[in-house]
Amino acid sequence: MSETRKPLLHVEDLKQYFRINRKQVTKAVDGISFDIYEGETYGLVGESGSGKSTTGRSIIRLYDPTGGKIIFDGRDISGKLSKENEKYLRTNMQMIFQDPMACRNPRKKVKEIIAEGLEIHNICNSKEEIDERVNNVLDRVGLSREQATRFPHQFSGGQRQRVGIARALVMNPKLVIADECISALDVSIQAQVVNLMKDIQDDMGTTYLFIAHDLSMVKYISDRIGVMHLGHIVETGTTDEIFTNPIHPYTISLLSAIPHPNPIVEKKRKSITYNKDEEGVDYEAGHEHVITDTHKVLATDEEFAKWTNR
Amino acid sequence: MAKFKRDKNERVLSIRDLNISFNTNFGTVRAIRGVRLDLFQGETIAIVGESGSGKSVTVKTMMGILDSNGHIDSGSIIYRCKEKDGSETEYDLTKMSQKDIRYKLCGKHIAMVFQDPMTSLDPTMTIGRQIMEPILEHEEASKKEAADRAMQLLDEVGITEPDKTFKQYPHELSGGMRQRVVIAIALACDPDILICDEPTTALDVTIQARILEKIKEIQLKKNISVIYITHDLGVVAKVADYVAVMYAGRIVEKGNINEVFYDPRHPYTWGLLSSMPDTDTDSDRLFAIPGTPPNLMEEVKGDAFAPRNPYALKIDYREEPPMYDVGGQHRVASWLCDPNAPKVELPAELKARIAKMKKEAGINE
């Protein structure tokens, strides 16, 4: 990854707060910054409640961010959107959701679901053109053309997720946000979907923001990884850096929690637990420490010294 | 790890030639086809397979919660029940009515932890009352005793403030806490068998590890037998003593955990092991088993896995393979284990991975 390349997505100090009542505000995302370069895959990992899904949803503007700046392909898409920028955002950024059944209209045929975006944005001039694009994308994700006239419930889980990918890809997006898109699938099918996403990236140069809680799958697909905890990115780096030289104790505990398919070793191994309060880590007080060009950790000076000396 | 002996006298549950089918609008689905499995006192077995392979149906039959269109065609599930006073009774769960199973055995002797902790708790009842419920139902305990037991159970499953949680409602707890409560309910009447149906699939990896360690700890303390149903081989490696791999309603490979993980014989097990993401390799492509599981609506001819199996022999398409004994507790249903079959090498990548696993575990060949 050469750092001189212009980032496709630049997120700076993104904040997303949710007001619960007059007194309480949940800070789901609290000032995170990262860049995603063209053609790469950025993995965002963390436990539930860490704000990784919220980040994805704020970027694609399913929520209105409380603060911060999002630059997508040179256009500012934070704050109030102009008509032009909104259209650009809606056509060039797409999302794949976790539950492939719940996120689409069960009364529509797969073909209509996939073509919906094309129709809304008046991208194609004729019905034939729409058909052609839908058929092409169906071939691309490995579904047969006959299956296009079926309803979502007639598909298996893996096939439904393929429909989800087809729906996102039909727009030829620059950036695809994949929000836990494989965690509901069986292991053997997960591998198929991950491989498919990689193939598509190789062919079309799509950029992915891959959100997941399963670090082992993220390793296969991501070039760079950001580890999120309680609304902060605590550590970011290339996949290698995160896996071979994790600094932040939260990253270490996440890595230790991955079960290895090796019975004798696995039975003896104990996972490392991480408790922010017990360790006395204060994310608010921390600032970014640069280890290499790409590897950064959020910590105060004392914490950083302690963690690197281990 | 001490090898589990699997002594006949310690058998708690034995399933023999179980066949179950479902009647649907589109015809009959043969979901379980001749399953044979044993469970011993204090042992943990894991049933592994993709969705639709019949692993959940098998345990649902034990709990008497088979869907109403399901039908047990043949076979038996013998459950040897040890009463608290020391006497033993044998029940054939396939001969009992579902209602009988639920009244006599469920909760008291066989308990189950479901996948989704939110839907298996009652949102209108406090946590304390939900744990007290099975105690009051199955045992002649006063409310005071039941409440004390519930408090103790909450403590056992690792909830830090039992008296506070006791009065809370399910929605006030996080996913991991809720699953702990579900485990506490399952353990309320000291069952002999605990069935965990994908207990950690809905949870984060960090919490998953803690829950699995907790179940293990409780199991050792109370000497109960546990059946895990999962598709995550990492989880299996962590908890199980014995593994059964299911495919399309049949057990295709079973054996002691080390036999199955370090010396897999069935091509489906090879596929499953290879498709596990490994955090140590540098290869950037994941192995995927091609195709999808078969439709059990149609009659399966030969080996159900044959169409997805690159190593399939001609006979695989004609005849179903028998269970071969390949030594120890290891049984494999694949024609490749027949003495007349051609020698097939493990896929190179998997071979390398197993060699590395063995090295890490300190096994010498």
Write the layout of secondary structure elements.
The complex is a heterodimer of chains A (310) and B (365).
Chain A: E1 7-19, E2 25-37, E3 41-45, H1 52-59, E4 67-72, E5 75-76, H2 83-92, E6 93-96, H3 110-120, H4 127-141, H5 157-169, E7 175-179, H6 187-204, E8 207-212, H7 215-221, E9 224-229, E10 232-238, H8 239-244, H9 249-256, H10 263-268, H11 276-279, E11 287-290, E12 296-299, H12 301-308
Parallel strand pairs in A: 3-8, 3-9, 6-7, 7-8
Antiparallel strand pairs in A: 1-2, 1-4, 4-5, 9-10, 10-12, 11-12
Helix pairs in contact in A: 3-4, 3-5, 4-5, 5-6
Chain B: E1 11-24, E2 27-40, E3 44-48, H1 55-63, E4 70-82, E5 88-92, H2 98-104, E6 110-113, H3 127-138, H4 143-156, H5 162-166, H6 175-187, E7 193-197, H7 205-222, E8 225-230, H8 233-239, E9 242-247, E10 250-256, H9 257-262, H10 267-275, E11 324-325, E12 331-332, H11 348-361
Parallel strand pairs in B: 3-8, 3-9, 6-7, 7-8
Antiparallel strand pairs in B: 1-2, 1-4, 4-5, 9-10, 10-12, 11-12
Helix pairs in contact in B: 3-4, 3-6, 4-6, 6-7
Question: What's the main sheet of chain A like?
Answer: 8 strands, mixed
Order of helices and strands of chain A: EEEHEEHEHHHEHEHEEHHHHEEH
Number of helices of chain B: 11
What would CATH call the homologous superfamily of the largest domain in chain B?
P-loop containing nucleotide triphosphate hydrolases
Radius of gyration of chain B: 21 Å
The first-to-last residue Cα distance of chain B is 18 Å
User: What fold name goes in the CATH topology slot of the largest domain in chain B?
Assistant: Rossmann fold
Q: What does the average pLDDT of chain B come to? A: 87
Bin the strand percentage of chain B.
15-25%
